Structure prediction request, 324 residues.
Amino acid sequence: MKTILLTGAAGFIGAETTKLLLERGDQVIGVDNLNDYYDVSLKLHRLENLKKFSNFNFLHLDIEDKKAVDELFQKYTIDAVLNLAARAGVRYSMDNPFVYFTTNVNGLLNILEAMKVNGVNKLIQASTSSLYAGLPLPFTESLQVDSPISPYAASKKAAEVLAYTYHHLYKFDVTILRYFTVYGPSGRPDMSILRFIKWIDEGKELQLFGDGTQTRDFTFVTDIAEGTIAALDKINGYDVFNLGGGKKPITMSEIISIIEGLLDKKARIKKLPFHQADMSETQANIERAKLKLKWEPKVGVKEGIEKTVQWYLENHEFCKRLKV
Prediction:
């Protein structure tokens, strides 16, 4: 049994990873600032499910608050840190770039300094496929990711560099995980899958950026959580891994068609100009994760969307109130 500090515990990936850690018997100290970037009721919904576990301790805390982070590390004996707290969302990062750096970079710096002072040397740092913009498919970890096209991606690149610095100086064990378009039950309402389900179900106009031919390497949230935990258990030193679906990417038009079939409803699509901060296609090479983490995804896109639609229908009254 380990004591894990998991930041962003009320977030989409954070909550799923926390659940798996709790189920296997680890002690999890979960922190989250519960910001209102998207509907807070969804974060509270996830937390309610986690608070059923006696080995879960939740703290309403912002990693940008250095004093609070320092006091946290002084209070608990921590074996490892999973830093999943982040300001997410490519498009919104253009509207408010400052908060992306205060959370994604300064927040990480607070954690790294507290780790140094308190003798904690194991870090899993969540990163993003957005770093690969403009590079050849499929994306491999060895590519030079020096041309981010959004403040969000730039902040994640800065976080990777900062984590490497602390590995170099203080011999931290650091693993960077580049996640590829995560979706699933209780997913973020600012992302396409839940938005599309809700819009199609309610007969509202579906907003589609681009012509629908853009592709994504969608990855089911439980697969992502399992890959995150595999990195916690198996990796020492400094390493970077793609966690993606590992299959042929799927177009947004195909995603819409699958959801239409599951709901037995037709989408009313409004096509908008392709956004300059978006990527036209993503595809992960996951061979390194297969080899070194002994991880590969289990849930295909059609099965994953079916699970997501099922969750949506089972929680229909709650989802009706969600803002997307």
In short: The mean pLDDT is 96. The CA atoms of residues 97 and 151 lie 6 Å apart. The two ends are 38 Å apart (CA to CA).
